[in-house]
Amino acid sequence: MRKNTQNIVIDATLFLCLLVLLFTGVIMYVLLPPGSGEKAFISLSRHDWGDIHFWTAVIFTLILVIHLVLHSAWIVNSYNLFKKKKRT
Question: Using CA atoms, how far apart are residues 77 and 25, in angstroms rounded to an integer?
Fold first, then answer.
């Protein structure tokens, strides 16, 4: 896979995970707050939405680490450039 395609796939997956985290977080906070009892949204209870939220966060974190590793050379170069500019 070309590097550009790889970046697009990783970035799109991160964005999708972020949207799912936002969506599930709003559902748990607004529609199914703590103490909402047996209420459900789309046939899923608050705990089910919590599981989706948790595992999406795990996937997001893993892909974010991969993203940072793949961009480590850029991060180091940017840091060194920043350090060099700060000295002058």
Answer: 36
